[in-house]
Amino acid sequence: MGNFTLEELSASNAVAANSLTLKPGQEQFIVPPSYAITEGDMNPTTAWPRVIVEDDVVVGFVRANFDAENTHEEFRSCLWRINVAADAQGKGVGAFAVRGLALEARSRGFERLTVLWEPGDTGPGTFFSHMGFREFGHTQYGEIIGEMKL
Q: Where is pLDDT greater, at 71 or 38?
């Protein structure tokens, strides 16, 4: 595994985060990281956008939400987005980000972390399963809801 760090998403690294290239077919599962800046500005107390950096290069992006009062239980401690550059996939970047997010969730008093994803052959379902998320439901739009016990 590389020497990764998690850094807050900022004006100085947002362009790099937006420029991450994905493997063919993955684009349909991803929303641009710059959306997270806007969402974070709308709710800065619950948003947790971070870039994953290796040797001063942005190799990934992760955004979570922590809102203990959310009316939807699955959104209280939730991984919203994870993007890893195509050439960095399979090298532990995503695993590092999820582990860092799980530590943050635990430090905030949460006992589980959730994630939503669309099913599909090139989608993230296998990765989430490998990381310990277990399917426990579906949204009204057909997305899978997974949870990881912390």
A: 71
